[in-house]
Amino acid sequence: MANRRLSKEIRCIHHEMNGIYGHRRIKAELAGMGHACGRHLVARLTREACLRVRSRKRWRLVSSSRHALPIASNHLNRQFASDRANRYWVSDMTYVRAAQGWLYLAAVTSCCRLGDAPSDAAGPGTRRIRDSRCSPTAANRGTAALGS
């Protein structure tokens, strides 16, 4: 008799939560309602009621390289170092899932070298020396445009 009432509550919770709650969450809901039961009992009753958890949508590729559209040529050929500011600019974009939906993030940066700093293998006591050619004031002087 108690299992029938519990099974009815399990069906009700499963329906209210649109089928996304598994036996652990259903057990927590039941405990919050004052029902004393174990998760194995809830799992068995859920199975016997043929209730299945709706799984999340799998990730799907949303962009494809299989198209006949023109592709921009690779001017830098992975040689990103530059001796002056505003000579080369690179960018990338991505999207991030947030509570509001998908947010798009784009980053744009100059490929200016910040000086001849020692490598990371030199140790934690080393300092980077800022190259005056790459200072914000040099970037505002209107030095060379993209790719020139």
UniProtKB/TrEMBL annotation:
InterPro entries cross-referenced by the UniProt entry: HTH-like_dom, Transposase_IS3/IS150/IS904
Disordered: annotated span: 119-148
Residues in HTH-like domain copies: 4-58
Protein's name in the database: IS3 family transposase
